[in-house]
Design brief:
homodimer; 107 residues; alpha+beta; Arc Repressor Mutant, subunit A; three-stranded antiparallel sheet; DNA-binding; ArsR-like_HTH (chains A, B)
Chain lengths: 107, 107
DNA sequence: ATCATGGTTCGAATATAGTTGAACCTTCCC
DNA sequence: GGGAAGGTTCAACTATATTCGAACCATGAT
């Protein structure tokens, strides 16, 4: 068997700007994206700033990012591997992700 | 008298990325920004696609954009002159506005 | 097979955002 | 001054998003 229990990901050409902007407009989600900027990360290793965050909440954050097409969420062993869909976002919205990742982090 | 009844605008250095992204994550607000990309516009001439929109709704859309620091809203005669705070946004988040304005408009 | 680990999904509660009419404020014009 | 035009603010309502426990599902290890 090749296919695993994968979650749906929008195709590159179906990404919607307002959905991407919305996904990134939440500080917690933006922080996740910043972490993924350094490379793929296992979900269990993600969001370690707030270890009290319930896993359902964490899962929901990932869902919003995934459904907007910003991140990929693949099965890896017992867990999940998260990664930025950098090329896809760049292809559809050139320069967007770069400008956001380069922006000052604080407020 | 020099000062008029002006609305508060955040200073350039106080713009918050997530607030800007949020303001632009709504299709109606994004459309307004696209219109202002062509140059300043009197509020009465804005949002003419939907002439049925109540003025309170329109005013609220502008408020979100203004408080995020994306647009300027100045008194002009009996009405208001809206303009894009292009340089301010560019100064704080280089490349962001350009990439958004260049992005495909539809979904 | 069974169990533990790591995530997703569901549902209900809460919080935040959008919508709108009504009241009010300014400015221009007479 | 008085009226009309153009906007803002307020308050109440509706709609959408977030939060999180509980139940469930898949995988790897024993």
């Amino acid at each position: 068997m090749i296919e695993t229990s994968d979650l749906p990901h929008p195709a590159r050409e179906d990404l919607v700007l307002t959905q991407v902007l919305f996904a990134l407009s939440d500080p917690a989600r933006l922080e996740i994206v910043r972490q993924l900027d350094a490379g793929p990360l296992e979900m269990a290793q993600c969001c370690l700033q707030d270890p009290t965050m319930p896993k359902s909440t964490k899962s929901h954050l990932m869902k919003v990012l995934r459904e907007a097409g910003v991140i990929r969420n693949e099965v890896k062993g017992r867990g999940r591997l998260l990664s930025l869909r950098r090329e896809d976002v760049e292809s559809r919205f050139p320069g967007l992700l770069e400008s956001i990742l380069k922006a000052p982090v604080g407020r």
